[in-house]
Amino acid sequence: MNRILHVLDHSLPLHSGYAFRTRAILKAQEADGLEIRGITSLRHTAAGPDQETAEGLTFHRTRGTANGPTGLREWREIQLLADAIVKLAHSWRPDVLHAHSPALCGLAALRASRRLNIPLVYEIRAFWEDAAVGNLTTHEGSLRYRLTRSLENRVVAGADAVMTICSGLRDDLIDRGVPPGKIGIMPNGVDLTLFGDPLARDAALAAELGLGDGPVIGFIGSFYDYEGLDDLIAAMPSLLRKQPGARLLMVGGGPMEAALAAQAKASPAADAIRFVGRVPHAEVERYYSLCDIMAYPRKASRLTDLVTPLKPLEAMAQGRLVAASDVGGHRELITDGVTGTLFTADSPEDCADALAGLLARRGEWASIRDTARKHVAQNHDWARNVRRYQDVYQVLSKQDGNRRLPAAAA
């Protein structure tokens, strides 16, 4: 199976963790000899042509309008995307549909797969009902929560194969009754070709931000409640008692930005905390160069226990030390004391102790960085891991040898 159509919520040129994972997958598959295209749902809101090339990758856009009350509007979105997939398939003729969560993409791809008589792989990056809880837009057990979960179950049941990004998601599906043999794992990864030698500390930028000469704790990403950044700010007074020169650098933005800025302003450690807002993607490495430790204090929840984040892997690939809360998603990525440091989730005091302890072991930093980068190269390099998809596609090819778009349909 050489021609794969990826069904996506959105894509490049929009910038998001979702879009960057998609880029890494598609680039790695192209390098492995596959023909790749993507098609996006109505949720891709950036202006552009119906067929667009972004960073050398080809994406097709779904057009139309989905109006109406909640439920009916989403159903119309699904139908428009399904029709767009079928129309594209009649001209480009993919061998496999590879849909990526959310379930709206999966349901559209499932409809199209049955109309086209070609296999469907459905990939779950997170359970979106849990992500909505983490973003404070719903609560566990709500009607929206239960409906989203039901739609996900429907896609999983209908797909020919299911992929998840980590063991936590796979185990949860098995608990729901999905046969283990139907579910594979494609772990979060990084494109190591994007990471050369880490940049030297940008002294001019450090001076501009007033960081001084002490150690810098950094967070670069989106400011959501589940990220636990309030605990990181709350840890700073205790950390300063142990490491008076330490500074906290916060880069990014999001729903919690105003609340976090107010908390920092009221903190006894206010003078040691810097908020710089969002920065252009091309500038991010300059800010990484300032940080001795990247901190990921995620709160304990279903979302953080089941889902592995991408940011710690990127930090390891860039030669940064990593300190993270001991939620399940982090434990899948980080071995405490070997590739990073883990501390108790929802505990500012334990966060402060862990950071102070790591700062005090400067002599071990080179070894930890080297071990962490090797771990990423061996277990989370897209160039290597992407071949897991090819194994799944080949199995589907053998099982569904007669499932092909009829020549007359072209």
From TrEMBL:
Domain Glycosyltransferase subfamily 4-like N-terminal: 17-189
Gene3D superfamilies: Glycogen Phosphorylase B
Domain of life: Bacteria
SUPFAM superfamilies, per the entry: UDP-Glycosyltransferase/glycogen phosphorylase
An MF annotation (GO) of this entry: glycosyltransferase activity
Protein name: Glycosyltransferase, exosortase A system-associated
Keyword terms, alphabetized: Transferase
Keyword Transferase attributed: yes
Organism: Croceibacterium xixiisoli
InterPro entries: Glyco_trans_4-like_N, Glycosyltransferase_grp1, PEP-CTERM/XrtA_GlycosylTrfase
